Please model this.
Amino acid sequence: MLIKTLAGAAFAAVLSMGAASADVTIHLLHVDLPSDPVWKQIAADYMKSHPGVTISIDYLENEAFKAKLPTLLQSSDRPNIVYSWAGGVLRAQVAAGYIEDITDAMADIKDKFYPAALKSYLVDGHLYGVPVQLSQVALFYNKAYFAKAGIDAATIKTWDDFLGAVKKLKSAGITPIVMGGGEKWPLHFFWSYLVMRLGGSDVLLNAEAGKDDGFKSPVFVEAGAHLKELATLDPFQAGWLSTMFPASTGMFGDGKGAIDLMGNWLLAMQGPNAADGKGLPSDQIGFLPFPTLPGGKGEVTDTLGGSQGFLVTKGSPKEAVDFLKFFSQEKEQELAAAKGAYIPAVKGTQAAIADPRFRQISENIAASTWHQNFFDQDLGPSVGRVVNDISVAIAAGQTTPEDGAAAVQDAWDQR
Model:
């Protein structure tokens, strides 16, 4: 009897060990602080119905994430799910063998996503990521400051109109533009949009193919010249070259500048990063499309933005993909839409968007004649870094538009 009891106890212990070994922890790493509470709520929902699975969600500041991710991906202790802006950076990660092909695993839900968003995560016809949110870069502005300076936002149609508004703001004693130049990428939005407005929807494809002298073509040089034209008006706050991005959003919320050319995530970040933790009231923030340029091939309905999402790293447990499938359900993404965290890439969630500005941006993206991924992501890590570098260097007077364009071409040739 004692032998049977001991045997039974041993068998129970084995079962207990088996159950324990079946427990899985999925580590997700991202850069989107406003979305962190929403994603943790979705993770909590998942864990309730999936005992034994722990979803650990961690935030890492944007630049720290970009700097550490290459090393993390090479580690045996790499995160299972990582944030992505798709584009050339994703293609480089896939080529290096760091990212799982999830084509088959996601086959039954791929139609849930907007086609343009899903396309961003395809490499050679295979799916390597899940789109989460869509974004648009626009000119967000402080309505009270525009009124004080006598500016009618509806009249800003062209680049000259925009420069005129900058001059009016300076004359009224208002810093025209908030800029987080310490991280460089915020300034590349100006150079990118200028390239888009001048060159039209084929501009990057033509440059990549080496047409008309590639990235040294007149379009890229002229874009730099217009950026320099803006910079000569001294439009940014004092110390803009060392201001980090999160601080710049708080400056906008604190009313330390009238305009911020930024993605729609600014709406969720300007309040928490403001000195009072509240920022500008939502009804005091307007936004405009980037202006057109005379003779340019681009349309005002051409938008710059992204399709941010998640990737599953190589060798991750199957629960990582399972969580992303759960995450992509309409009811879970409606939570993000309702809280104004972001514009979901999942169909059927638009009605849940409560913030009218988010709803308008969602409609803008849906009606866009060309939605271009962020240049620094689309062109790949090595070329993207140079795009960011030369955007700041041109604005700071450290290089010429011609040399800036040549530097991008050199980086493209050496990638």
